[in-house]
């Protein structure tokens, strides 16, 4: 039997499959790719919490949060958003980079800010968005790049934080997911 954990956002419920990320440690996996209904509900709820913030664009790391920042940009009337990529392509020009470690893969990843997007956010205020903030490694990588790009962070937001909720009190989130540790 597959173990799941039920979440609800804006009246839309999902059963998230539990996934072992380390021996005896499981997390609930949220994958919003292709889930238009959930993305729209999450965007609607986050918009309420982000209204009044002064910023030019949303920023996220590829790839699971892309539909969320797209919908947030539409809902909040922003003309563009920025995706930090995990692979460098030559058309990205003079890209900025930072290293991070993903909880789901357990491996080192590199984030890149495209030269075009760098120009968009230079000296501007942005909002960092992620689907789930777990260890904070990806969040820290995004912060490093934005600092290098001379951008300021107006807010940090996620659909969910994970683990010790007190660690994430500064994050604008719609809920907190537990971490299951076998004893």
Q: Total number of β-strand segments?
A: 12
Cα(first) to Cα(last) distance is 20 Å
Q: How many individual helices?
A: 4
What's the architecture, going by CATH? 3-Layer(aba) Sandwich
> What is the level 1 CATH name?
Alpha Beta
Low-confidence stretches are: none
Helix/sheet category: alpha/beta
Number of self-contained structural domains: 1
State the share of residues found in helices, binned by percent.
Answer: 10-25%
Rg, alpha carbons: 16 Å
- How much is the average pLDDT? 95
The topology string of helices and strands comes to: EEEHEHEEEHEHEEEE
Largest sheet: 6 strands, parallel
Strand proportion: 35-45%
CATH topology tier name: Rossmann fold
User: What sort of overall outline do the alpha carbons produce when their principal axes are compared?
Assistant: globular
Task: Describe the fold and architecture.
The protein is an alpha/beta fold and 183 residues long. The protein has one domain: 3-Layer(aba) Sandwich (Rossmann fold), CATH 3.40.50. The protein is built from four helices and twelve strands. The chain has helices at residues 36-50, 66-75, 115-121, 137-148; strands at residues 4-9, 12-22, 25-28, 57-61, 81-84, 96-101, 108-113, 125-133, 152-162, 172-173, 176-177, 179-181. The strands form three sheets. Strands 4, 5, 8, 9, 10 and 11 form a six-stranded parallel beta sheet that branches. Helix 1 (36-50) crosses helix 2 (66-75). The longest helix is centred in the N-terminal third of the chain and has 15 residues, at 36-50. The model has no long low-confidence stretch (mean pLDDT 95).
């Amino acid at each position: 039997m597959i173990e799941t954990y039920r979440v609800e956002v804006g009246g839309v419920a999902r059963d998230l499959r539990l996934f072992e990320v380390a021996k005896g440690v499981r997390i609930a996996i949220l994958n919003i790719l292709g889930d238009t209904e959930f993305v729209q509900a999450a965007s609607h709820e986050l918009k309420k919490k982000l209204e009044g913030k002064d910023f030019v664009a949303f920023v996220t790391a590829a790839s699971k949060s892309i539909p969320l920042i797209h919908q947030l940009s539409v809902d909040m009337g922003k003309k563009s958003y920025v995706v930090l990529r995990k692979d460098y392509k030559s058309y990205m020009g003079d890209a900025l980079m930072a290293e991070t470690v993903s909880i789901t893969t357990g491996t080192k990843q590199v984030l890149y800010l495209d030269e075009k997007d760098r120009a968009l956010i230079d000296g501007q205020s942005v909002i960092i968005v992620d689907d789930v903030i777990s260890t904070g490694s990806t969040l820290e990588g995004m912060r490093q790049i934005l600092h290098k790009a001379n951008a300021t962070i107006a807010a940090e937001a996620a659909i969910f934080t994970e683990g010790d909720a007190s660690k994430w009190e500064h994050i604008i989130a719609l809920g907190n997911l537990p971490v299951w540790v076998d004893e």
